[in-house]
Amino acid sequence: MVDRLASLFEHFSLKAHTFQAGSLCGQPQAGYQESVGQLHLIREGHLEVWHGRKKAYIIEEPSLLFYPRPLARRFVIKDEAQFLCAHVSFEGNETNPIANALPESICLPLASLPHCEKVLMLLFEEAQACNCGRQVLLDRLFEVLLVQLIRELMEGGVAKVGMLAGLADKNLRRALVAIHDKPEIDWTVESLAAEACMSRSVFSNLFRETIGETPAKYLQGWRIGLVQKWLKNGQPLKLIAEEAGYKSESALSRAFKAQTGLSAREWLIKIGK
């Protein structure tokens, strides 16, 4: 079976950095940073999670709490709780398609993630020990856990609309993987429908209902996301155009402005490049 996540992680990597291993008490803020998401593993304890004035979660069993994107929060902890936490950064930040496909927060009991049991056990064991290379190993284990979690969310149908929902569909996944693998091809609705083994009209309707946008819009978003990554890495626009599936630099420039509202130069200035 085709690997539905391979191209996503090949183009847009993720990194984790462990910053908390131990007990928390009282009403602490969550080490919130404006530029990264966070993954919290609550091994023991009873607590409430607040997003502003809203009580978002009540946690009464070992759980995973994941924020793909920055979101301020605070914990109200009954006595004490055992945490293992990592900052999570997705390459491309706000343009990362994986992060954008996830809800603003996810809270799951660890018992509901049987396929993650082994890496969770390794994480908790390493966090309690004081072995050489502890930080590096914890960071890599968190990254493995994140990939497993995203796979679980996709396979479990947690996402009802968006890219992960499309990748869970046995027909749409073929078209999405084709776009991710070969953005340089001049894809049309007809050729993508053929990849999905569907008629044009059925494919187009199902794609819009499941992904939340048209095939053409999704294709453009994927291409421009790659262009933004390549521009940040210093590649000139004229060399990127063909690789991103555009016939000329001017065609890419028009698509870039239509997608972002800025020219490539303006966008680079905005992000400080």
What distinguishing features does this structure have?
Jelly Rolls, 12 helices, Arc Repressor Mutant, subunit A, six-stranded antiparallel beta sheet, 273 residues
Polypeptide structure, described:
Strands 1, 2, 3, 4, 5 and 6 form a six-stranded antiparallel β-sheet that branches. Helix 3 runs antiparallel to helix 4 (134-155), helix 6 (172-181) crosses helix 7 (189-195) and helix 7 packs across helix 8. The protein has two domains: 6-155, Jelly Rolls (Sandwich), CATH 2.60.120.10; 169-270, Homeodomain-like (Arc Repressor Mutant, subunit A), CATH 1.10.10.60. The chain is α+β, with helices and mostly antiparallel strands and 273 residues long. Strand 2 and strand 3 (54-59) form a beta hairpin. The chain is globular and about 60 Å long. It is built from twelve helices and six strands.
